[in-house]
UniProtKB/TrEMBL annotation:
This is Uncharacterized protein. It comes from Digitaria exilis. GO terms for biological process: DNA-templated transcription termination. Keywords: Transcription, Transcription regulation, Transcription termination, Transit peptide. InterPro entries: MTERF, MTERF_sf. It comes from the Eukaryota.
Length: 381
């Protein structure tokens, strides 16, 4: 018996660490399971679904950006602040904000979020405008963009204008001011564009100021190749137009216009110089408008080339309805047979109605309704 104990004792001692470690792991697993099932604990993914309004699929993706999640305490404080009187975000806005910038839930309310809101207000933003800004550029609520806000407010003049543009290009608050934005502004000024010109251009094409400066240089070269003098309003339109067109696209469109209008390269170049925006017309629209003007209105290619703006109007909402009114008035002898279609086309809607619809309501009481129906495509024109 004594001999058996001598043999068993070493085995017992050598097995003890293994048994001890296994028992320790088991106890830790039990403790973790108990913690996860306790009322005060919720996983990051579940929190994103139940509290922030994310879908289960979005929550699974977003939770990866919250690796140090331990409890919802900090996130609760953030949401209380964002949905409280300081900002008043809705649940839908919270869902958008957290999806775009999940790390917002780990932010400090006092050191980060409250400071950011105070920065916005210093630059003249109302609470409603800050909410609009958050919807357009969610990440900016956590980032320090005070210097950029200061620049853009002095450049654009008002939060409203800035908000209209940032909805289409949130890179305004992420692009490097000195290396990108100010360099692009300088390049445009070197071509004769004033700050006011650049500001106006930014409304139509906000990405021009946040593009790589090499891209901006290439755009200016393409605009110059159209033969439009710098320091002119038309050159500004050329820059804005070619900003969204590559050299191959421009060459293809010029070739298409030559073929369809039956004219020379120099004639098309002159037409584009008169209105560079004609390059924005797709081949399909150009062809449909051209056929309508030549076959229905009865004008020729030379007439169109001398008035390229005519190609920019909507066939359904402008060209066809106004041509319909012109034909009706001519048939009734209420306007001259040689009345200018272009003059009738280019006036504002209000002026068109006051000149060509309202004066004839006694003779043609149904004309106003017929014109309205034509604008909606409800009658053949």
């Amino acid at each position: 018996m004594l001999r058996l104990q001598k043999h068993l004792l070493p085995l017992h001692r050598s097995a003890y660490p293994i048994v001890h470690l296994s028992l320790q792991r088991a106890l830790l697993s039990i403790a973790a399971a108990a913690a996860s099932s306790s009322p005060g604990h919720i996983s990051a993914e579940d929190y994103l679904v139940t509290t922030c309004g994310l879908t289960r699929e979005d929550a699974a993706k977003t939770a990866k950006y919250l690796p140090h999640w331990k409890s919802p305490a900090k996130a609760d404080a953030v949401l209380d602040f964002l949905t409280g009187p300081a900002l008043g975000l809705s649940k839908a806005e919270i869902a958008l904000l957290v999806t775009k910038d999940p790390r917002i839930l780990s932010s400090s309310v006092d050191k980060t979020l409250r400071a950011r809101l105070e920065g916005f207000r210093r630059h003249g933003f109302s609470t409603a405008q800050i909410r609009s800004f958050v919807r357009g550029a969610p990440f900016a609520l956590r980032a320090n963009i005070d210097e950029k806000l200061s620049f853009w407010m002095s450049f654009m003049g008002s939060p409203d204008k800035f908000l209209r543009i940032i909805k289409r290009n949130y890179y305004l608050v992420s692009s490097d001011l000195d290396k990108v934005v100010k360099t692009n502004i300088r390049l445009l000024q070197e071509r004769g564009l004033s700050i006011q010109d650049i500001d106006n251009m930014c409304v139509a094409n906000p990405r021009l100021l946040t593009s790589n400066p090499d891209t901006t240089r290439a755009i200016l070269v393409r605009a110059g190749e159209l033969g439009i003098p710098q320091n002119t309003n038309m050159f500004m339109q050329a820059v804005s137009t070619v900003a969204g067109l590559g050299p191959e696209t421009i060459a293809s469109k010029l070739k298409m216009m030559c073929k369809m209008l039956g004219c020379s390269n120099s004639e098309v170049a002159t037409m584009v110089q008169t209105n560079p925006q004609v390059l924005r017309c797709s081949k399909e629209k150009f062809q449909r408008v051209y056929e309508f003007l030549t076959k229905v209105v009865g004008v020729d290619a030379k007439y169109i080339m001398g008035r390229p703006t005519i190609l920019m109007y909507s066939l359904e909402r402008r060209l066809a309805p106004r041509n319909y009114v012109m034909k009706v008035l001519q048939e009734k002898g209420l306007i001259r047979k040689d009345a200018s279609f272009y003059s009738m086309l280019t006036v504002t809607e209000k002026l068109f109605c006051s000149r060509y619809i309202h004066p004839h309501k006694d003779v043609l009481p149904d004309l106003a309704n017929a014109y309205s129906s034509a604008c909606k495509g409800e009658i053949t024109t």
